[in-house]
Specification:
The protein has 288 residues and is of the alpha/beta class. 45% of the residues lie in helices and 14% in strands. The protein is built from 14 helices and 8 strands. Strands 1, 2, 3, 4, 5, 6, 7 and 8 form an 8-stranded mixed sheet that branches. α1 packs across α12. The longest helix is centred in the last third of the chain and has 18 residues.
Length: 288
């Protein structure tokens, strides 16, 4: 049986995921496969490299740092998040990322991005992350709030735009059971994108991205429907925030971020035995 971990994005709402993954580390729960988009992918790499606490530490340490997220970043670089700071200075200097440990982890790892030219999801495997965080940067580049990222002849944006909860890809890649970590509470339904005039102008060079954003809410809500069916069939187990998440993807309040992290840790801790049993090969052999 091939077990998978599927991680939604959501910017700073990813602190919930960081809490879940630190608990999974403490409980020695591992996976054969992991896929993430945007903040989900960023959380995944530290989990797979065995750097427990790194995602929480980075977000809480730099939440109030203008280099991390600020309007001044947007004015200077056309990105709310300081992409060079986050994907170069932090992993290479301030809080070094262990690329060798990621490579040595036997788990298959996939990062979802959106091809800005086609408006379709695209995926990179672990080989694209060779002492280079460009793929993570591309997956986290929110349309309008970040410029497109060029990589290996393509141009990419936020993976969450076209495949926000990449459970279908995990199953297509052979996973038999998947643990899915959401950053929105159960029952959440995504509304249509606002400010269409703004993103239509900002993305005039990429008309397929405009179409993708127009359909983003439909894709998201349909994925939730599919996920519910997978839960009912016993293929998926879902962890989600226990209450309505009011934080934005650009949240800067360390206290609010730490509280969301704690919620993630607690939710995983409460269900640790259930998760372990769900992922166990023995349950499959017994027909559970």
């Amino acid at each position: 049986m091939k077990t998978g971990l599927v991680l939604e994005g959501g910017g700073m709402r990813g602190l919930f995921t960081a809490g879940v993954l630190d608990c999974l580390t403490d409980e020695h729960i591992t996976f054969d496969y992991c896929i993430g988009v945007s903040a989900g992918a960023c959380n995944a790499v530290s989990f797979l490299s065995g750097q427990r606490g790194r995602n929480k530490r980075i977000n809480l340490t730099y939440a109030l740092d203008k280099r991390y997220v600020s309007v001044s970043n947007f004015i200077k670089t056309k990105s709310m998040f300081g992409m060079d700071f986050i994907f170069c200075q932090i992993p290479d200097e301030l809080d070094p990322f262990d690329y060798e440990a990621l490579e040595a982890n036997p788990a298959q790892f996939v990062v979802g991005v959106t091809d800005a030219q086609t408006g379709q999801p695209f995926y990179f495997d672990k080989s694209a992350i060779n002492h280079d965080s460009t793929v993570m940067r591309a997956s986290s580049s929110i349309p309008v709030f970040s410029p497109p990222v060029a990589f290996r002849g393509g141009v990419y944006l936020d993976g969450g735009t076209t495949d926000p909860i990449p459970v279908k890809k995990a199953l297509a890649d052979g996973c038999d059971r998947v643990l899915v970590v959401l950053t929105r509470e159960r029952g959440y339904q995504k509304p249509p994108e606002g400010h269409r005039g703004i993103y239509k102008r900002a993305l005039k060079k990429y008309p397929a991205m405009i179409t993708a954003l127009d359909r983003r809410h439909e894709v998201y809500n349909k994925t939730l429907e599919q996920l519910s069916k997978l839960e009912q069939s016993g293929t998926a187990l879902v962890l989600a925030p226990p209450e309505k998440v009011t934080l934005s993807r650009f949240e800067k309040d360390p206290a609010k971020l730490e509280r969301l992290y704690d919620q993630g840790y607690q939710e995983a801790q409460k269900t640790a035995r259930q998760i372990a049993a769900f992922l166990s090969k023995e349950t499959v052999e017994k027909g559970v």
